[in-house]
UniProtKB/TrEMBL annotation:
GO biological process, one term: intra-Golgi vesicle-mediated transport
Species whose genome carries this gene: Steccherinum ochraceum
Keywords: Golgi apparatus, Membrane, Protein transport, Transport
Positions of the UniProt region annotated as Disordered: 407-433
UniProt keyword annotation of Protein transport present: yes
GO cellular component, one term: Golgi membrane
One protein family per Pfam: Dor1
Protein name: Conserved oligomeric Golgi complex subunit 8
Main location as per UniProt: Golgi
């Protein structure tokens, strides 16, 4: 197809050629709008027509009619075969239209309700904020349940460790609670756990200090002290003081048990009570020695030999001072007890084993620097002095009581019944000058045979000799003068009682005796008293003085100024004067 070239024309001489859509709209028997012919599909089809040859253009209507018929048939067939679909589509479209209207109404109602819903939601959120917070806390707790359980179980675990004496684990748990408290200083739960742990640690401290008060050997005590050191609640000096205090309390308990046992065994019998006092002191000294020696050796091992290194050189010195103070206090307490109880044991035969025991004890303590032998002598000297004095006084009382007795239950006896044997009553023996001379050189181990005829005087002699024989077991040299003075004092009192007995003649005052006593018999009774008195002052007293001085102390009366004491000398003078006066008369 040849291209038609447009010739230029002048705007003012040639009319404008209409476009193809305009021509078609103008020539159509039916009105067609230009908009319909100006659409994309119409423009494309019109462009297609302009490119056709004339033959093709002329056959185009037939082709279009054929296509229209085919489309009509196809549409008819489609409507016939798919009418249910069209009906359903129609119904659905109607329903959709109704639903859209209802939806629109619902949306309008929803939009009206949304503000109140929003207000209610905000109110609900505010009201449930605390619950949500608690729920978040509960959720957090549940999430960290295991860790919280470990923290909360610290006091219980610590208490279990302390009850089972697992002190290492207890200290580790206490340290862990301390570190948690430092990491969370503002957390009340952690601080509460720390407070409970501290209370358990205080219980452990009490338990460890209690070990020091109980019966325990060195390993247990060393272990307890080491744990107390790890707890760091006391410095070394305070710990040493606590150790000595605890062991001292345990020792006091053991000593009190010995004293309680002694009180339970006391029967009121003088001789048995003396033996019980001796057993008590022996047992007391054994317990004291073992207890004090254990404390000193344990203290040396724990605090002096294995003392922890410190920068202060005064610590070891202070520890030594504490031990010295403890030892001094314990020794002084023992000496005070001996001063109080040794006089209750007048018999030196009981004192001698005690002195030997204490000497050995002091020797063993000397290796520890605690020798107290020099302090024992004055105590035992005083005990011997008091005991001998008491026994001599008791022997003198036993002699004097029958001579002065006025008891109705025990009537006074005649001299022939009291002072001499029945065989010697008719002619009481008297010492001759030769016998007196022989007695001055006779051995003091042999009592005068003549005294066997005088039973009361013999009993008195046996009592004194028993005392002196006991004194031989423990006879302090410095007591010779005191004991001799005491002996002479009792002899003077006994002689004075005998002189008064002979002078007052109390058997005459007894009607039961005086009614049956003739003048001759009374004179015979007076002779028995005179013979007894003479025998007492010439034989008995010198022999007793020699028995003490020579038999016990292996000395002589001349060495100790052999004159009798003024008290005994006064009684001797009274006897001599009475004898001379009687002779003169």
């Amino acid at each position: 197809m040849a291209t038609v070239t447009s010739l230029p024309r002048r705007q003012d001489s040639l009319p404008e050629i209409p476009a193809l859509p305009e021509l078609l709209a103008a020539s159509s028997s039916k009105p067609i709008s230009l908009d319909a012919l100006s659409g994309p599909d119409a423009s494309a089809y019109l462009g297609h027509l302009t490119n056709l040859h004339l033959d093709a253009l002329q056959s185009e209507p037939t082709s279009l009619s054929s296509s229209s018929a085919q489309l009509t048939n196809a549409l008819t067939t489609l409507c016939h075969t798919s009418y249910p679909t069209f009906l359903s589509l129609h119904a659905t479209t109607s329903t959709l239209s109704t639903s859209l209207s209802s939806l629109s109404s619902s949306i309008d109602s929803l939009l009206t309700t949304l503000p109140s819903l929003e207000g209610s939601a905000r109110t609900f959120a505010q009201e449930t904020r605390k619950i949500q917070k608690d729920r978040r806390k509960a959720s957090l707790i549940l999430e960290h349940h295991d860790k919280l359980y470990d923290v909360l179980s610290l006091p219980m675990l610590l208490d279990s460790c302390i009850r089972n004496h697992n002190y290492n684990e207890a200290l580790l748990l206490s340290s862990h609670s301390s570190s948690l408290s430092q990491r969370f200083p503002d957390n009340p739960l952690i601080q509460s756990v720390r407070a409970e742990c501290d209370a358990r640690v205080q219980a452990m401290l009490t338990q460890l200090l209690g070990v020091l008060n109980e019966q325990a050997k060195l390993p247990a005590l060393f272990r307890a002290v080491n744990f107390l050191r790890k707890m760091e609640v006391m410095d070394e000096q305070e710990l040493a003081l606590a150790f000595l205090t605890g062991r001292g309390l345990y020792l006091d308990g053991a000593l009190n048990a010995v004293e309680t046992e002694k009180k339970g065994n006391m029967e009121g019998n003088k001789e048995r009570d003396r033996e019980e006092y001796a057993r008590y002191l022996k047992r007391y000294v054994d317990v004291w020695r073992e207890g004090v020696q254990d404390v000193v050796s344990q203290y040396n091992t724990i605090f002096l030999e294995r003392a922890p290194s410190t920068s202060s050189p005064t610590i070891p010195t202070q520890l030594h001072i504490l031990l010295s103070t403890f030892a001094t206090y314990r020794i002084q307490a023992l000496l005070d007890l001996l001063k109080e109880d040794l006089p209750m044991i007048p018999d030196p035969t009981y004192l001698t084993p005690l002195l030997t025991q204490l000497t050995y004890c002091s020797n063993s303590f000397a290796r520890l620097g605690m020798d107290f032998r020099g302090l024992l002598a004055p105590i035992f000297v005083d005990a011997v002095r008091i005991g001998i004095t008491r026994e001599l006084e008791e022997a003198a009382d036993a002699w004097c009581n029958p001579l002065t007795s006025t008891s109705k239950s025990k009537p006074l006896q005649k001299p022939s019944q009291l002072l001499v044997t029945s065989s010697a009553a008719s002619s009481p023996p008297k010492p001759t000058a030769a016998q007196l001379k022989a007695l001055e050189s006779s051995p003091v181990t042999m009592p005068p045979q003549i005294l066997s005829s005088y039973p009361l005087l013999g009993v008195y002699l046996n009592a004194i000799l028993t005392i002196l024989n006991g004194l031989r077991m423990l006879a302090p040299v410095e007591l010779l003068g005191d004991i001799l003075s005491t002996l002479e004092s009792t002899l003077a009192r006994s002689g004075s009682s005998l002189l008064r007995y002979g002078r007052e003649r109390p058997w005459r005052a007894d009607k039961r005796i005086s009614l049956t006593l003739s003048e001759e018999a009374d004179t015979k009774e007076a002779e028995i008293v005179d013979a007894t008195t003479e025998l007492y002052f010439t034989v008995f007293v010198p022999f007793i003085r020699r028995a003490l001085v020579e038999g016990v102390y292996s000395s002589t009366l001349q060495r100790i100024q052999g004159d009798a004491s003024p008290e005994l000398e006064a009684v001797l003078v009274e006897w001599r004067n009475g004898r001379t006066g009687k002779t003169d008369g």
